[in-house]
Amino acid sequence: MSYYIIACLKKRHQIMSSEMLPAFSETCNVERQQDLSEDGEENQKPGLSERFQPISKRQMKKLMKQKQWEEQRELRKQKRKEKRKRKQLERQCQPESNSDGSDRKRIRRDVVHSPLRLVIDCSFDSLMVLKDIKKLHKQIQRCYAENRRALHPVQFYLTSHGGQLKKNMDENDKGWVNWKDIHIKPEHYSEFIQKEDLIYLTSDSPNILKELDESKAYVIGGLVDHNHHKGLTYKQASDHGIDHAQLPLGNFVKMNSRKVLAVNHVFEIILEYLETRDWQEAFFTILPQRKGAVPTDQAYESCSCDKKFARVEGGLNSDSSEEENRHELDSPHEEEKQDKESSTESTVNSVPY
């Protein structure tokens, strides 16, 4: 009987274990999946070190600027509206100024074109790096703009146009193809201008230009080289047998730096001279302040004052040096006198009566 009961209990236990095992495995699998999902979420969440990374001063400044930009958006919008209104009022008032003769179109009617030809020689393209090519391009733009505004515009030629310069103009200034009152040619200037009419402007020339002959063609070297190719334009003019000259800068102006000017400065000085017929006024109107230009008479006076001051200082220094030398010379004599007196005293004491 007891054996039968034990067998029944074993069988019942096997049945219960077989029924509970799948459920238990399912619960274990569910718990394991939950643990894995929780671990994945924790891995996906940024850690404390990532969440609280320190911000650099540069990033802080950028954030502040961005915040200010957003805050001032309405203010900028308001300023743009005010600017448009102001321009509109100026346009409405413009017809009234036409009666006074201040209209720009009326000024353009008074323009007298000069027959003088001014050529920028761009044949030095291979000697410049891209940075200098861009500077030359800006200088040419300035020349074009100033010639368009001038009361006596010249016949503007841009020769040997090609290479890096043309590529840079095509990329950054596509409107150059629509420029007016300018002759842009890929040929060298010597191919369409007679040699007898050419005068190359170079600061290395011994010839000084006194007057502008408006029947001539004046050539400016289109070279930005930072003095790496000194005397190149003068050598080229001499080799081609072309007349050369320099602007009379030294006759009117004293400068701290060399007498080498930018392309647009030479161009603008000539335009100013054609209007005023005064070299000194043209130089001081165009030359930038960084050149430290002063009139030659003032420079002479300052030099003479400096020389006088140097002479006075030199005289004072020489007097003081002479006094020092005298003191130096006197001291040995005094020492010799003292030595002689001591020696005489010793001799007198040693001599018997």
Which features characterize this protein?
353 residues; alpha/beta; 6-stranded parallel beta sheet; 12 helices; elongated
Blueprint of the fold:
Layout: H1 2-44, H2 48-51, H3 57-71, H4 73-98, H5 104-109, E1 117-121, H6 130-149, E2 155-159, H7 163-172, E3 182-184, E4 198-201, E5 217-221, H8 232-239, E6 243-245, H9 249-252, E7 253-254, H10 263-276, H11 279-286, E8 294-295, H12 296-350
Parallel strand pairs: 1-2, 1-5, 2-3, 4-5, 4-6
Antiparallel strand pairs: 7-8
Helix pairs in contact: 6-7, 6-10, 10-11
How widely separated are the two ends?
171 Å
Radius of gyration: 46 Å
Number of strands: 8
Query: Describe the biggest sheet?
Result: 6 strands, parallel
Characterize the structure shown.
This protein is α/β, with parallel strands linked by helices and 353 residues long. Helix content is 60%, strand content 8%. The chain has twelve helices and eight strands.
Précis, in short:
This protein has 353 residues and is of the alpha/beta class. The chain is built from twelve helices and eight strands.
